[in-house]
Design brief:
The chain is an all-alpha fold and about 100 residues long. About 70% of the residues lie in helices and about 0% in strands. It has four helices and no strands.
Length: about 100
C-alpha cells in the first residue's frame, strides 16, 4: 500500500484549497492586510466609476452648451448682431451674447 500525502495545511489546520474555495482569508497579519487592500481597491474602483460618470455628464452639458452657442452665433449673424458687438468694441462671444441681450 502506498501512503497518501496529507494536504498542505496552514497554522489553523485548514488546507489552502479549502480557504480558496470558500473565499476565506486566514487570520494572520498578511491576511488582514490582503483583505484591507482588496477593500481599498474596490472602494477606489467605485469612486473612479462615479467620477467617470460625472465627467461624462459634464462633457454632455458642455457639448450641449457649445452647440447652443454655435446656434446663437448663426442666428446673430443673420440678425446683424455681430456688427453691433463690433461697434461696441468687443468681438468675443461674450460681447455677441451681450449684444443679443441688448445691454
Amino acid at each position: 500500500m502506498s501512503k497518501r500525502c496529507a494536504p498542505k495545511t496552514n497554522i489553523f489546520g485548514r488546507d489552502s484549497h479549502f480557504l480558496k474555495t470558500r473565499g476565506l482569508v486566514p487570520r494572520t497579519r498578511f491576511g488582514q492586510l490582503q483583505k484591507a487592500c482588496v477593500d481599498a481597491q474596490k472602494k477606489a474602483e467605485s469612486q473612479l466609476k462615479s467620477c467617470q460618470s460625472m465627467i461624462n455628464d459634464k462633457d454632455k452639458e458642455l457639448t450641449e452648451a457649445l452647440s447652443e452657442l454655435a446656434n446663437a452665433k448663426g442666428l446673430l449673424a443673420k440678425l446683424g448682431a455681430p456688427s453691433y458687438a463690433r461697434a461696441l468694441g468687443d468681438n468675443s462671444d461674450v460681447g455677441i451674447l451681450y449684444a443679443l441681450r441688448g445691454s
